[in-house]
């Protein structure tokens, strides 16, 4: 009897080990892959950040922000997520330096910050994407991961669309009009839109979505990604203009008699508060609109997920 019990116990223990082994192996593999991606993301983002610093696209604090953002995104989301983030950053940096001299007077008059991005700007444009990538790496639910991926492409498409619209829209030969009233305003004014700026937003969001889709292997089940990026990015860019025209803090220089985002104008004069909310600067607006873009993309992805689930259920019957 004791011998029989020993044999049964040995068989049971062996079976349990065989069943547990794949799970343990899978868990260990996931940890190893995440660690290797984190390490790779650290080296890659450090290299990109230092190169951007040398080209004056990032400040020192901006380099630190880029390293944190890039490392987290690659480590928790994957290389496709990280490379999509790099596409946003590189394309935005190139456009920031495109016809820089022509945009210089507008930038120094209107914008609170120049083309050299600091850590606050990195967080405003990439912070929401980083949070979504971090959450994606923590969950194992396929549905949740799909929703987070949709949110990621939406938030990054919004950041891309807004940056492209700003950098190219300011070069428009047509005067911008306020999104709220249609009144003609000066180039670079928050809340002003032009056909060129809107076209750049559409192009930027479409480009980001297409790049992300290709990086995911252009799989059929991911075909909705470019469409989600286009819709969310364009909506987010318009929301940015709306917030810029209504709640973003704007100031007035009594010396130059110009409206600006700067508390101290380039002429050295302390500006007077004109409109909006004092605590809402351009960075706050950018973070809010990237969140909005994520929510738009997540909402629009729900019908696609339901259709996919129905198709899976029908195939299972």
Structure description:
With 317 residues, the chain is mainly alpha-helical. It has one domain (33-106, 118-316). The protein has helices spanning 2-54, 60-77, 79-97, 100-110, 119-138, 142-169, 195-215, 225-246, 282-316, and strands spanning 177-178, 192-193, 250-253, 258-260, 272-275. A hairpin with a 4-residue loop joins β3 (250-253) and β4 (258-260). α2 packs antiparallel against α3 (79-97), α5 runs antiparallel to α6 and α5 (119-138) packs parallel to α9.
Strand content: under 5%
Helical run tally: 9
Query: Pairing-aware structural class of the strands and helices?
Result: mainly alpha
Amino-to-carboxy terminus distance: 47 Å
Largest sheet: 3 strands, antiparallel
| Low-pLDDT segments | 1-25
Output mean pLDDT: 85
Radius of gyration: 24 Å
Written as H for each helix and E for each strand, in order along the chain, the element string is: HHHHHHEEHHEEEH
Integer tally of domains: 1
* Total E-strand runs: 5
Coarse morphology: globular
- How do the strands of the widest beta sheet line up side by side? 4-3-5
Task: Estimate the helix proportion, in percent.
Answer: over 70%
Which helices and strands appear, and what pairs or packs with what?
Layout: H1 2-54, H2 60-77, H3 79-97, H4 100-110, H5 119-138, H6 142-169, E1 177-178, E2 192-193, H7 195-215, H8 225-246, E3 250-253, E4 258-260, E5 272-275, H9 282-316
Antiparallel strand pairs: 1-2, 3-4, 3-5
Helix pairs in contact: 1-2, 1-3, 2-3, 2-5, 3-6, 3-7, 5-6, 5-9, 6-7, 6-8, 6-9, 7-8, 8-9
